[in-house]
Design a protein that fits this description.
Number of strands: 25
Radius of gyration: 27 Å
Helix content: 40-55%
Number of helices: 29
Strand content: 15-25%
Length: 634
Amino acid sequence: MNIIQKIFGTHSQNELKRVYPIADAVMALDEDMQKLSDEELKAKTKEFKERLENGETLDDILPEAYAVVREAASRVLGMKHYRVQIVGGIILHQGRIAEMRTGEGKTLVATLPSYLNALEGKGVHVVTVNDYLAKRDAEWMGQVHEFLGLTVGVVLNSMDNDERRAAYECDITYVTNNELGFDYLRDNMVIYKEQLVQRGLNYALIDEVDSVLIDEARTPLIISGQSEKSTKLYEACDILARQLERGEASGEFTKMNAIMGEDIEETGDFIVNEKEKNINLTEDGVKKVEKFFHIENLADSENLEIQHNIILALRAHNLMFRDKDYVVKDDEVLIVDEFTGRIMPGRRYSDGLHQAIEAKEHVKVKRESKTLATITFQNLFNKYAKKSGMTGTALTEEKEFREIYGMDVIEIPTNLPVQRKDLEDAVYKTQKEKFRAVCDAIEEAHAKHQPVLVGTITIDNSELLSGMLKRRGIKHNVLNAKFHELEAEIVAQAGVHDAVTHESIHEMIVMNQFAIRQLHVAEQIVLRGRLVFHRILPHLVAHNLRSHADHRGEIMAFGIVETVTETSLYHPVICDVPFRCQAYSKPVLLIGVLRILQQSQRIGYPQFVHVVQRIRELRSVVGIAVAHQERSFD
């Protein structure tokens, strides 16, 4: 928070001042609502619809409508909205994004704007990230809406068109973002109006809005058909790709280099650009491809397919990694979601990349598909007349939300003060020392009967850490994309107390991103100990984990353990350390950081930042460009 914000307040604080009077008006109606019988409370829905037909707006009836939902939730679920939850509901109705900490009851908050906007009869879509949450919320929160006379539906992956059509006809429909998108695409492919399953896109209330509208914004949803192309070329290109040698380039080819006539020296058969995620053949590589396929000129138009497929094979071997980007299960290549770490059955990489990976892993290569219809989540949700969202981590993406969707982010205060204690980040000289320190911290907490949650960025790291813990004799569970079927069971056991001995079960879970974004699957989760995390990427995930520490008001300590290595310093895609940099003189920056580690294998985050700032001051001398990335700590 800068000095101007300290004096005049943040955007969220100023906007909340306008919302608080409305929330107070809702709270003031509490006694009146308690006096109503069940039948009188249910009759309010019909009254609100008549008032809207007579010219009143949703804003006019908001205080009374929210008070009705609040009382109905109290009678049906035994839960009554707190003032901050009412504030969140008002923000959502206004078409904005409410950032609420995990455990603050976002699911209950959604009942307020969904009821109010459903009164218009145009339909409300409550969008969740998976079928489990859609079904759970429809059955759980749907009781409130049904008590008040509204219809509630849920769209699941297993449903046929008739069941989907019936669900979309309901006043409020719970649906995942993927099912919503594919139903939209299928509707645009039908011939007759009677075949449509959706009606108009009126109001979308999106849970985990940062994941849907930012992380997966450009992810295309594709409906495809089978191509007649043979799969033999993929297998041939895979054989050749294994024979080609990876090389290096003396510099990056740019227009300026071409104008200045500068030559770029290349070694090997192909060059990998990890930053841009592309691969280029060298002159030697082109000759080997031409010799392998017995062609005279690889650049000829009739050889474009060979050129395309050999690049795909090289990408499969050098840019796509097993147990990180995908897993192989039951003789099938399954994609791992880069944002959540969750397996995505039925999804396939497009443009032949999936076939190239199948050839690499020696599983059956399926025919390439051709695109029949496609849309991105960004384009889909921009078609709604109104949309809003809620999440625990949105403030860091407020600029993108404003520019792309015209939505601002309002940070909703917690109902009770946060008791969690955040520890500063620790930086280690090598990865080996980092992992040893993580295990030491786990062992220390384990000896105190404290459940521990460890977050990793890749499946490999979760299994590496698991092996180290086994050697120390520490019992634990591993939750990653390989064991996703056990997700709910494993998470539900985290922090459970033995009712007989009254001692904490020594429960420790090693998790990757797959589980980090899905902790709320277990409703009864209780974490009562020190949470030890290492290598959290992206930073939003770490923020999400912090939020989970607030759940049930437990006092928590939190620290992220990072590694200082050349890889982590110079490849932001691989590791999001407290700063990101692009360096043209790599050893200089690395030496500057490692020098302070000569006496100790660990430094604190402030000391680490100080060194980076000193190097930045010298960048004009040594030719280093360093871009500091601010890290926010609660």
